[in-house]
Amino acid sequence: MTPFGLRRRRFVGALGQVITALCASLAAGTLVVILLYVFMQGVHALNPAFVTQLPRPVGMAGGGVANGILGSIVIVGIAALLAVPMGVLVGVYLAFYGRGPFPEGIRYLGEVLSGVPSIAIGLFAYTLLVQPLGHFSAFSASVAFAMLMLPLVIRTSDEALRAVPVSVREGALALGIPTYAAVTHVVLPAARPLITTGVLLAVARITGETAPLLFTAFGSQFWEYNPFNPMAELSLQIFTYAISPYTEWHEQAWAGALVLIAAVFVLNVLARISLRGARR
Amino acid sequence: MSLPLESATATLRTKNLRAWYGKRLAISEIDIAVRGREITAIIGPSGCGKSTLLRCLNRIHETVSGAYAQGEVLLDGENVYKREIDVIALRRRVGMVFQRPSPFPTMSIAENVLAGPRYAGLRLGRLHEKEVLERALRDAALWNEVKDGLRRPAVTLSGGQQQRLCIARALAMRPAVLLMDEPTGSLDPLSTLQIEDLVTALAHRYAVVVVTHNLQQAARIADQTIFMLADEFGAGHVIEAGSADHIFTRPTDRRTEDYVSGRFG
Description:
The complex is a heterodimer.
Chain A: H1 6-42, H2 48-52, H3 66-97, H4 101-115, H5 118-133, H6 138-163, H7 166-174, H8 179-207, H9 234-243, H10 247-279
Helix pairs in contact in A: 1-10, 3-6, 3-8, 3-9, 4-6, 5-6, 6-8, 7-8, 8-10, 9-10
Chain B: E1 12-21, E2 24-30, E3 33-34, E4 39-43, H1 50-57, E5 67-75, E6 78-79, H2 87-93, E7 94-97, H3 109-119, H4 126-139, H5 143-146, H6 159-171, E8 177-181, H7 189-202, E9 207-211, H8 215-221, E10 224-230, E11 236-243, H9 244-249, H10 254-260
Parallel strand pairs in B: 4-9, 4-10, 7-8, 8-9
Antiparallel strand pairs in B: 1-2, 1-3, 1-5, 5-6, 10-11
Helix pairs in contact in B: 3-6, 4-6, 6-7
């Protein structure tokens, strides 16, 4: 004799398993389809010239997005230089003095900031830097990107520092090492792999951002090295090419998307490697 | 500032020491005396405040958010809780070892031992560093096991070795007093014996205060034993203090007798 309801429980359990597995396959499958599709569309236009040459005028074959790739590196690089030191310092503050209304308020504001749409942050950077200076600039885009990165860097630093055992921190203080030296020489190095992982993921996250660039970096057809001038940027170029009416530009937009996805993929792999370092 | 060649032992006394975690009183009216070149063991059931008492002696207690202490702790007669005291200088004189071995995870064996002198701002110079390193590791009975791999990561050592490394790290600062918070609490029996032998040897030169759950351990190594118990509000008091012989064989207080004979705790 089977106990009451056993058959029904088994059925519901099996059904639940099937449904969750289907959802998981759908989610993973979508990603695979996107990657395959971008690859198939983009791979024709991808050639050495695409990543080494400037864009050519409409109607001329060839040309590339090298200035956009350089612009992405410059803009994201400056954003990281702005956001990482500040974010880590805020993380240190929260992890070590993180009780009470003020730190809790900062944590909450960080969460709010991470939920602000990137286009609104772009508008803010426009009002802050583009309007007063009178022209678009890569630096204003970096500031917008830094604001997008900041909450991620703060949260990972806070969590990474908290994950360092209290005994390590106390061990340092008990030796008569002053607090600042205990933080910089003992606790921060112990948290570094996790912080690095968080920073790489934050960089990967902003590398694909386009919206704030529309009214900050603006784009350019030329090589540009001065961050206080308008600058080309890869995802912005993809956007421009994709909404254009020209077939060859559409192909280049796909190729650009492929390069962008590859870059983000590399960043994610690096983040995983760094995380493995943390687990060791 | 440089390191003294010989560590000078010191005495510790507390007068009406009380400590809180936020609003909760954890220890109350503590009056104990720790003599130099002796081992003082603090025993008592979980939650009786013995670790808190230990942590007040080098003022690491107050690094916990909301924790504070009142009363006096006299190190060679000087109150370490008076306003002008330099807490950093105090902690250099009063070393501490924790229950869980806590080598600094990113550092090598040598870097761990030298972390105190280096980051506490004593510039030793390379030759002197080598000397301090070898001496601390010898004093912690670890030198022979690690001398060929001083640059290895400290986390590759076994638990017992890590604990002796933490002792070496504390000794490198040439403290006058060594505080040990259940130093064998997470170790196997063999490592425990090694640490006990080591502690006995160290007591020739330092004042050692050991918090322990292990009554046999206290009976084996302690010159003086302090028995603590929490009252009905959870605040720890000293019930009785005396020689190990006194506490374990003819205690004056009924509660001490109940505890050491295993009736509770």
